[in-house]
Amino acid sequence: MEQVAELLLTIDMVHQFAYCPRRMQLMYVDGRWEDNLFTDQGRSVHARLDAEDDPLPPSAEGDPEPVVARSVSLASETLGLTGKLDLLEVTDGRAVPVETKRGAPPVNPERSYEPERVQLMCQALLLREHGYLCNQGMLYFAAVRRRVLVEFSAELEARTLFLINETRAALQSGEMYPPLVDSPKCGGCSLAGICLPDETHLLAELGGMEENPRPPDIRRLYPARDDALPLYVQEQGVRVGKSGEALVVSKGREKIGEFALKDVSQLVLCGNVSLTAQCLHLLCERAVPVVHLSMGHWFYGITTGITLKNAYCRAAQFSVAADEGRSLALARAFVLAKMQNQRTLLRRNARMAVDETLAAMKKLIDRVGTCRTTEDLMGLEGAVAAQYFDAWHTVLAEGLPDEIAFSPRNRNRRPPKDPVNAMLSFGYALLAKEATLALLAEGLDPYWGFLHRPRHGKPALSLDLMEEFRPLIVDSAVMTAINTRMVESKDFVVSAAGCAMKDTARKALIRAYELRLDQMITHPVFDYRCSWRAVIRVQAKLLAKVLRGEIPAYSGITTR
Asked: Does the pTM of the predicted model rise above 0.70?
């Protein structure tokens, strides 16, 4: 494999580095990308220019009238640079590159920003390498249809050559540049929700999230909730295909439903559901994951396209996993958050006195810091869970006709023996796939954990990450489904072999689970509004930052 130093830099790499070194690394080292309104507009503006490539016009002789070429590709081994020019005007050997921008020129003396001038200067350097005279360029602002002249001064040339060298060094470095501090650039950056600049700086300064004072104003630079939602396909024997930009669910020759791809964040297949090759190709191309659950709703795995193209996060993950001290610190954080959230759920929702249970749980929680192995932690976690599930019946509303059926005294599974445990098992499978998707988006290996040890077919890190969210999301959704009578005892089949959910119970729980994920909350640390699904993704991002050393410690999400 070629080393980075031997590869040609693209003009866009230098342009992005001039705008924000961290953005360049996220794009070209970590392979990250997200669209927003600005990138969509920019893509639309460039669509005509990129429709067809033109060759480079001759430089020595030519018509005195300007020759215009669009989408011209150039490269230079000497500069170690390559790129594509939007538009090139050539008159008698003199070249003027024209770069198209979506908006309007800024109100400053240069009528442009440095990254834009550097981008044009890179184009000029390539043109000079190919024998052209090139002393100026143009920025064309599409929103106001206005050109701004950029003179290629000696200072701009020196600055551009410096940035080319710095960009190459940043590509070779294994360390990420820190985020910009309180920069207005972050507000329009499509990668701000991946970078999390304000959150990263805050946690780096405070050393973690636990027991921190109320933070200063933190900007939420990512959507509070997604417009697209998961599509669950549960009817057995159906097929999912595609029709243009839509997913079509059919059974035999009967079309059951059609769903616009833009409205689907993930496709969840439950049991005997088939998927056409054409549909799978489209989903992989659009980065829409396909989640596979068994008929019994075990989480089997995920099909995704090729997304992240680097291994830095995974290398850091494996390094931390091999460090007993750091691995144990992460395991403690996962377990501690889960225990605290279990205790909080009981304290808030019990309809009778559970003071003794809460006191016993508190004593066990206080011992987390004394655990020296993950085995000790798992034992402590099991003891707290026993106290928690022994009192779980107290969170059920009074007067339920099915109170006895929905009153488990312990956690049981494989198979579950009562309706509550059947719903919890299904809900935890759904939560595991949500955690897996969040970890895969960060380039982490969902099968290599810190609390849960790696085992074939077991997404150990997904189980780690979901610990803190079990009470917050799944247990809460199950409690809501029972107390609001979304499910009743007739929605389950109970036998000596165990308890199984009927379709009505499964659909009701999925509805309660998705409503909980979509619920808006005030983030307990950053003090802005977002959904629980967004919180899971942010926690995965923060875990990745801890593993790569950007944040000193991981703390789980807890509610008061």
From this structure: yes
